[in-house]
Design brief:
Layout lengths: L24 E2 L3 E4 L7 E10 L1 E2 L2 E2 L7 E10 L2 E8 L3 H9 L15 H10 L11 E5 L2 E6 L2 E7 L6 E4 L22 E3 L4 E2 L6 E7 L6 E7 L6 E8 L10 E2 L3 E6 L2 E3 L1 H5 L8 E3 L5 E6 L5 E6 L4 E11 L2 E9 L3 H5 L26 E8 L6 E14 L2 H4 L6 E7 L9 E6 L4 E5 L4 E2 L4 E4 L9 E9 L4 E8 L5 E6 L9 E6 L3
Antiparallel strand pairs: 1-7, 2-34, 3-6, 3-35, 4-5, 6-7, 8-9, 9-10, 10-11, 12-14, 13-14, 14-15, 15-16, 17-18, 18-21, 19-20, 21-22, 23-24, 24-25, 25-26, 26-27, 27-28, 28-29, 30-32, 31-32, 32-33, 33-34
């Protein structure tokens, strides 16, 4: 009698972590359903696409070499193009088979770190694996990563990589307090910059390491400029891993979680994700006034971690901050491809696939600016991540609806659900289908719509049965299915995106 196989079964979503080697130019994709006439423009998506090199597999989802995707919705149909970001790691991979750089969770090979330090001292270009999020600076599209404060320009139509934005300003030599720094390369940052809702200025921050005490440094780049200007400076006892923050009309809110980085380990060459630990404190929410860079108040709440924020706004002398809150540090570790770095146990223990066992809930923190403690309440019981809003209209302002991916009650181990959460009524609607794994939903407004979320959501979805990807269009209010746009290949599990209307 045959014995049952003891070979562990990979997860349904395994194709989402298989390298996509090829770059395509496809003139017309298969469409099911009817795409609304107002959806005219380009959906840009970004994420990792290569998960190994000649030296072996990478250890974390964030370490995959970045790729950009463009789905253009026009009168004649939907076309597609994809390109790798031409980073130094990509170039070395193609030339030598090995990326020869350390990553977010992948250690560098012996001797590589010393060589990179020598090259940096000689002024070599940094490695910018621009694979996390998009922004626009000085009227041009850039791709960004947490791994470097240097954005990469690219052509939004051809996806051709262009020059790095090597900042030529005082903040390459100073921190935001005007103090000289040892090196601008010794900085952490976030790819989730914001636009000031009043001025349109680009706002971001970096964490300065090396030399004196670690500090958070907030800056702005005025609309039409490529020069950073200091906004605020906050010293910290231990730098947190902050992947996102919030802006309102008059304030910035930094969510400093207890997931902190050991700077000594980092200086010794340990990758960021392997140098993290959970500190014995709560999450600190720092409120900074944009007008003068002063810290208005800092609040300490329960120990939670927020990978992504959804929105924030001012109301009656308070600030409401809506974010995806985890009760522990494990989300960053759940995304390790190296199984030794994930939580013990799980269905895919020992296999090189993420398994999302720590679940976030959309939570509102209410911060009174004139005194009193912070308050909080949960906005939904759905498991959520990767949230978006109608950014151009409501970022930093009161709003009604957020759109998030997440994990359905069947809990397959990765994102398989889209949620629409009405934050005013605290009403949640969800969409999911067996075998489909959903990406971040991008809202496209119906200009003739009569309600707050008239429009559609665009989500890049992996069909685990065919191991191909598609764009799922959903009605943003009802989550009813509108149309699907099918690719003839898979797209690896990615991160973020943006919709650019034609003639913008």
């Amino acid at each position: 009698m045959p014995q049952p196989s003891t070979t562990p079964q990979p997860p349904e979503y395994a194709a989402g972590f298989r390298t996509l080697h090829d770059e395509f130019d496809l003139d017309r994709l298969q469409v099911e359903g009817r795409i609304p006439a107002y959806v005219r423009g380009s959906l840009l998506r970004i994420g990792p696409a290569q998960f190994e090199d000649a030296a072996g597999p990478f250890d974390h989802h964030f370490d995959g070499l970045g790729m950009w995707h463009r789905f253009h919705f026009g009168e004649a149909g939907v076309s597609y193009r994809n390109r790798f970001a031409r980073s130094e790691a990509y170039r070395k991979s193609r030339a030598h088979g090995s990326i020869e750089f350390s990553g977010f969770g992948t250690p560098s090979q012996p001797g590589v770190r010393e060589r990179l330090l020598r090259e940096a001292q000689a002024g070599a270009l940094p490695n910018v694996n621009a694979g996390v999020a998009f922004a626009k600076i000085d009227g041009r599209m850039v791709a960004m990563t947490d791994g470097s404060t240097i954005p990469m320009y690219f052509d939004g139509e051809t996806l051709d990589s262009q020059e790095l934005l090597l900042w030529d300003d005082a903040l390459q030599r100073l921190d935001c307090a005007g103090q000289p720094v040892k090196s601008w390369r010794m900085r952490l940052t976030t790819a989730h910059s914001h636009l000031d809702p009043l001025t349109g200025d680009h706002i971001n921050y970096f964490t300065q390491l090396g030399g004196g005490k670690p500090s958070y440094n907030l800056y702005r780049v005025r609309k039409g400029s490529r020069q950073r200007e200091p906004l605020a400076y906050l010293e910290t006892d231990a730098p947190a891993y902050m992947h996102a923050f919030c802006v309102t009309e008059h304030h910035i809110v930094l969510p400093e979680s207890p997931l902190v980085i050991d700077t000594e380990q980092l200086a010794a060459g340990v990758p960021v994700a392997r140098a993290m630990h959970w500190a014995a404190r709560g999450m600190r929410l720092h409120v900074i006034r944009k007008a003068d860079g002063q810290r208005v108040r800092s609040f300490e709440v329960d120990p939670v971690y927020a990978m992504h924020t959804l929105n924030a706004f001012e109301r009656d002398g308070e600030i409401c901050v809506d974010l995806c809150a985890y009760a522990d540090k494990e989300h960053v570790f759940d995304l390790f491809l190296d199984p030794a770095m994930r939580q013990p146990g799980g269905r895919y223990a020992g296999q090189r696939f993420p398994e999302l066992r720590s679940h976030a809930k959309l939570t509102r923190y209410i911060l009174p600016l004139d005194g009193g403690a912070a308050r909080w309440h949960r906005l939904s019981d759905a498991t959520v991540e990767l949230g978006t809003v109608d950014y151009d209209r409501v970022n930093g302002r009161p709003y009604r609806c957020g759109y998030l991916t997440g994990i359905s009650p069947r809990d397959p181990g990765y994102y398989d659900q889209i949620a629409r959460i009405d934050v005013e009524r605290q009403d949640t609607r969800t969409w999911s289908r067996p075998g489909l794994y959903a990406g971040e939903p991008i809202f496209v407004a119906d200009p003739d719509g009569r309600h707050a979320d008239a429009g559609v959501l665009l989500s890049l979805v992996l069909d685990s049965r065919s191991e191909r990807s598609l764009i799922q269009l959903l009605d943003a209010e009802t989550l009813g299915e509108v149309a699907q746009v099918h690719l003839p290949h898979h797209v690896p599990a990615g991160f973020h995106g943006v919709f650019r209307k034609d003639a913008r």
